[in-house]
Structures are given as C-alpha cells and as structure tokens.
Amino acid sequence: MRPLKNGDKMGKVLVIDDDEKMCKAIFVLINRLGHDADVAFTLDDGLEKALTEEFDVVFLNVLMPDGNGLDLLPKIKETHSIPEVIIITASGDPDSAEIAIRNGAWDYIEKASSLKKMMLPLTRAFQYRQAKQSQTQPVALKRERIIGSSPNMKICFDLLAQAAVNSANVLLTGATGTGKELFARAIHFNSPRTNKNIISHAILDKASRTERNFVVVDCTALPGTLVESVLFGHEKGAFTGADRSKEGLIKQADGGTLFLDEIGELPLVIQKAFLRVLQERRFRPVGGKEEKESNFRLIAATNRSLDQMVEEGAFRKDLLFRLRSLSIDLPSLRERHEDIKDLTRFHMARLCDRYDIETKGISPDFFDTLISYDWPGNVRELVNTLDGSLAAAGNDPTLFSQHLPMHLRIRMARDSVRKKDRDPYSAKGDAKSNEALPTLRALRQTTEIKYLQGVILHTGGDVKKACHISGLSRSRLYELLAKHNISM
Predict the structure, then answer these.
(1) Could you give the CA distance from residue 354 to residue 369 in angstroms, rounded to a whole number?
(2) Which residues are CB-neighbours of 349 under 8 A, at least 6 positions away?
(3) Are 46 and 40 spatial neighbours (Cβ–Cβ below 8 Å)?
(4) Contacts from 404-407 at CB under 8 Å and sequence distance 24+?
(5) pLDDT at 428 over 70
(6) Quick one: 47 exposed, middle or buried, by C-beta within 10 A (0-12, 13-18, 19+)?
(7) Does an H or E element contain 383, and which?
(8) CA angle 400-404-405, nearest 5°?
(9) pLDDT digits over 389-424, tens only?
(10) Is the pLDDT of residue 440 over 80?
(11) 292-293 and 282-283 beta bridge pairing
C-alpha cells in the first residue's frame, strides 16, 4: 500500500456497508492513499450514489439490511463510470465468490483480512483503470446477430473485445442455442485474421482456399474412423480409398481461425494428438513422412462441463488448460430475460425480410408470454418459435399470444392457475372464518421453510436446478437457507 506518486491520478471510491466502524476505517485509509471516499449504509443509498456520481472503485458488502450486495453488483457495473467492484464480506463462501467473479467483481475478500490487505486490491484496481484509460479507444465491435444489452451480455462483450485483439486460445461455454458459433465468428471477424472466406468441413472440397480462413469443425459430426484424416489430412495411398492426397482442416486454417465446436466430443486418442498440434503448431498427415505447419488461432466451444469430464477421465486435463487461455461463458436466455424484446424485434424483422412480407406489429401479450417462458433451447428456440408464429399469423398485421405455439400458451395458463392455487387465502370461501389466522410474518416464515425444503427434496440438492425452479438467484437462495438453518 502506497500513497499517490507523481503521475498517479486521484480517484473516487464508494464504500457500501452497514458497519459504520468498518466504513470509517476504510474511509481513513482511502484518504491516506490520496483518493476521495464516500459511504452508504444501505444498498438503495449506495445505488443512488453510484447512479448520480462517478466512482472508480466500489467496496460492496454482501449481507446488508435491505438485501444481498451480490444482487446489486450487476446494476453498479451498469452505471456510467463502470467502476471496479470489490466484494467484502464478514463470512465468505466459495459459491458467493464464484457468483461475484462471474458478475464482473474485481475481487472478493473477507473482512477478517487486515485493512492494509484490503487496500491492496484497491491499489491494483486503480492501476488497471489508469492503464486502461491511457490506451486509445477501441473500434466498435462487429457483432452481427449478437443481440443484447443485459449485464450478463455486457460481460461477454468485454471478453469478446479482449479476445479479438490477441491470438490466445478461447473456450466458449454455454448451453445449446446460446450463440457460441456467433461469438466465435465475431472474435474472428474483429481480429487481424479476418477474411470473408469461411470453410466448413462439410463443404471443404468446394471451398476455395485463401489465407486467414474461418474453419468450422463440428466434432459431433466427425466420422469415427476418419477423424485423423479430416483434421490432419492424408497422403495418397494412406488407407483404402485414399486415391489422392488431401489437406486437413488444420492446414486449411493456416493464417486464420480453427473453430472446434463441441470439443467435448473429440475422442481421447485425438485429444492427445491435437495437444501436440496446439503446442507446436505442427502435425503429420496420415501416411505422411514429413511434418507440416499451420499458424492457426484456436477457438473451441462446448455445452458440457469439461472439468467434470476431466474428473471422469473423458477429457485430458492438459488439453483443457491449453484451451482456456481465455474463457467466455455465455448466459442462457432465462438469465437475460431483459434481452427478449430486442431479440424478438431483431429476428422478427429479419424473418419478415427473408419471406418478403411487411414487418408485423407485436402486441404486449405476445411479449408477456415470451418473457414468462424459460427457453430451454435458448435463442435458437426463440427464433424457431418466431418463425412458427409468422406462419400462424398469415396475413394478420399484428402478432398476439394466440399466434404462439400451443405449449407456450398452455405453460403460461398452467402457471397462472398454480399461482392462484398456492394462495391459501384466495377468495374461494375455503378458509374457515372462525379460525384464528397466523401473523403475516409467521405465515411467510413457515411458507418459506416448507417451500425451500420441498425444492431441495425435488432437486436432490442440485443448486442450479433449485435456482431454476424457484426463480431465486444463487446468492439469495443461500441467504434464505442460512436464515432458516436449512442444509442442502
């Protein structure tokens, strides 16, 4: 920890914590470092200050009187100054730490640390911002068909920008339909390796070769007995049917980008061979005597947990380390419902243009139904749904929920009935008028406990499923479990 020196810029720090003594101690240290500080004792007050003033760094406590600080983190990262956020907590846990980092926190530290140690990430955050501000402003990203402005997507766009300016290997993770290939193409087309030529292994023979290609390899579609030939190429006579020499996809990507989609499906024996290719950028074609070189940039994608596959012996740990020099985890659509309207408008306009029909109006109930659905197939399912709605609408100028598929409308109707049935004091005349009613607080507590116990039993303790079913964030779920002393 050191005070400002010549050339350093004074910064502004906001401390959001209900512990007045802690706030005062941090306030004093920040001033000693030469920076300005302000404090807020509630999340609401902290958000208001972050929205009306510009801060470089925010210290944000987790457990606050008016909520969980982790839920406020994305909103603070959305404010105009986009401050670095350091999460502080009296009792940290690994899951909360993961949530914080995934949502863009600079660091996650426990208050049990000495105050001087707490200032170290502050100093580094200022150094990072100063270096960042001294750089020239980047050119706007080309991100055709990647729609969204939600906090989760903004984090992904920041990482996309980082990936585009270097040649590090990139691992894209996320569920099916979240747009992994779109992101891979965006990284390629925003990088120095850009060229309009795109080659897929399905049309390799028909594609003209140039330098700087974007070569797509669907690992789920690689023929089992010819994987090596497809990737590394082969010499004439290397095997039955090899009547001529053929270059593989790795060589086709020379000077450009090799995109391995669903890399978790790559056979173990090929993983070992490909690891050496990544290390040396050299390979030997099947039946060949000499090695060849290929200066490609690798982007890989998967909808599986490669860490779990490593534990199960289905994926090589050393290859995984090589793949994720930089990782981008794409959020599912249910994690960014605020993007559904923009996605709908964009793809609806695109589909109307494709079918050469007038752009249709969209009614509020159409949007309401889309937003209420959890989209297990993500953006891909949304686009297919919109396509079907256009067909159902025919010549109608406006889309209503009536034009949506039956299963979406049934789901919304069932959910509305379930909510009504769950209300024990709805106007049905079921409750006995002479029975004493519990206090609202007692009722809430009993209902919360029973509901949480039911969710845990139903999901078998799977946190991800529990969050999906309950609609709670992971941080809020853990907070309620701790409040009622319920274990997973």
Answers:
(1) 25
(2) 359
(3) yes
(4) 404/366, 404/369, 404/370
(5) no
(6) middle
(7) helix 378-393
(8) 160
(9) 999 999 999 999 999 999 888 887 877 666 555 555
(10) no
(11) antiparallel
- Nearest 5°: the CA angle 280, 285, 289 is 95
Laid out side by side, the sheet with 57-61 consists of 36-40, 12-16, 57-61, 84-89, 107-110
**Mean pLDDT along residues 429-446:** 60
Average pLDDT rounded to a whole number, residues 268-277: 92
Mean pLDDT, all residues of the chain: 84
What does the alpha-carbon distance between residue 263 and residue 295 come to, in Å, rounded to a whole number? 20
Give the confidence band of 473 by pLDDT, cuts at 50, 70, 90.
confident
**What pLDDT is stored for residue 30 in this prediction?**
92
Q: What is the mean pLDDT of residues 165-169?
A: 89
Question: CA–CA separation, 105 vs 15, rounded Å?
Answer: 14
3-state secondary structure of 284: coil
- Phi and psi dihedrals of 91, rounded to 5? -140, 95
User: Do 217 and 259 meet the contact criterion of CB atoms below 8 Å apart?
Assistant: yes
Query: What burial class does residue 421 get, using C-beta atoms within 10 Å of its C-beta: 0-12 exposed, 13-18 middle, 19+ buried?
Result: exposed
Q: How far apart are CA 426 and CA 424, in angstroms?
A: 6
Enter the tokens of residue 321.
């380390």
105 three-class SS: coil
- What are 299-352's pLDDT values in tens digits? 999 999 999 999 999 999 999 999 999 999 999 999 899 999 999 999 999 999
Task: Give the Cα separation of 193 and 259 in Å (integer).
Answer: 13
DSSP-based three-state secondary structure for 388: helix
